[in-house]
Amino acid sequence: MTENKSQQRELILAFESSCDETSVAVVENGDTILSNVIASQINSQKRFGGVVPEVASRHHVEQVTICAEEAMAQADVTYADLTAVAVTYGPGLVGALLIGVSAAKAIAFAHQLPLVPVNHMAGHIYAARLVKPLTYPLLALLVSGGHTEIVYMRAAGEFEIIGDTRDDAAGEAFDKVGRVLNLAYPAGKKIDDLAKQGTDTFNFPRAMIKDDNYDFSFSGLKSAFINTVHNAEQRGEELARADLAASFQASVIDVIVTKTMRAVREYGVNQLVMAGGVAANSGLRARFQQEIAAHTPNVDFVVPPLRLCGDNGAMIGAAAHVFYNQGVRANGQLNAKPGLSFDYMTPERQLELSK
């Protein structure tokens, strides 16, 4: 079943502030970006080797109104043109989320607009809507700094996690390995680039790759990597950084692709969506394309462009369009929910959680 497009022009002003990007976008009919303003905090956060929540919150306070004004100007729309306001209300850093939620509630109240609450992870999946229509049922692979999940979607707005990480998420492992390699935060792209220059010579473990489930575990891989480097340092040996990066990345890719492709076959879906920050990894993209072409050529593999893999307001607007038309609304009591569940979600459950 392919999702239906609305014939009426619907404009959603969407806020995203769950971590270290302040982003506001205007999205038309859930699939057309009129503006997508992103204020990154990378230069501030890399001094600490990761995201400091208090620093992130302060940046959001400084940037959220500036981003909103710029998004409206770039889209060339007025508040009277808007259909609704949408906002990420979880999961994420509580202080960061509160900034976006407060701004969205203020604008919705001031202009008497409906307020649509959006789960951050649903936003990542619906970034694919900005590429092409989604066809249900489908599988979505979410790979980011905080999540590595396989999600089964029977229909629009329905999410069921069939595989999850039991410890470190893939993106978290990339950043921790990057610190060992003395790579500046965020390390994902740097490891990806370095891996292209090396080969998989260390044969790091592929945890749970043969287990009869769709769950992931990357803490053992992270520990094996750190121990290999530290043991070499104690012996006075210098290991090839490119080979270390290639070996680490090969292990991550093998596990993710093997388990995801098994789920694709067993659930009989015809569309696979990959989303989240780690979806920008060129090695992971290439491996999926190879596996699908060789074994399941009927499967439509959809990955958002690089600019939509990280956190951004456009993905929240794309998701909000679906939820808005399903009647999901929030009132002025909407609060940030840093530990918001994504275990099993329907439009009715979304509305219940947002209250």
What does this protein look like?
There is one protein chain. With 355 residues, the protein is of the alpha/beta class. It has two domains: 162 residues, Nucleotidyltransferase, domain 5; 169 residues, ATPase, nucleotide binding domain (Nucleotidyltransferase, domain 5). It is 42% helix and 17% strand. The protein is globular, with a radius of gyration of 20 Å. The two termini are 30 Å apart. The mean pLDDT is 91. It is found in: Cytoplasm. This is tRNA N6-adenosine threonylcarbamoyltransferase.
Q: What is the CATH superfamily classification of the largest domain?
A: ATPase, nucleotide binding domain
**What is the count of β-strands?**
11
Category by helix and strand content: alpha/beta
Instruction: Give the number of helices.
Output: 11
The name of the CATH topology of the largest domain is Nucleotidyltransferase, domain 5
Helix coverage percent = 40-55%
Instruction: State the shape.
Output: globular
Question: Helix and strand succession?
Answer: EEEHHEHEHEEEHHHHEHEHEH
- The strands making up the biggest β-sheet line up spatially as 10-9-6-7-8-11
CATH architecture of the largest domain: 2-Layer Sandwich
Low-confidence spans: pLDDT under 50, at least 5 residues?
Answer: none
Mean residue pLDDT = 91
Q: Give the CATH level 1 class of the largest domain.
A: Alpha Beta
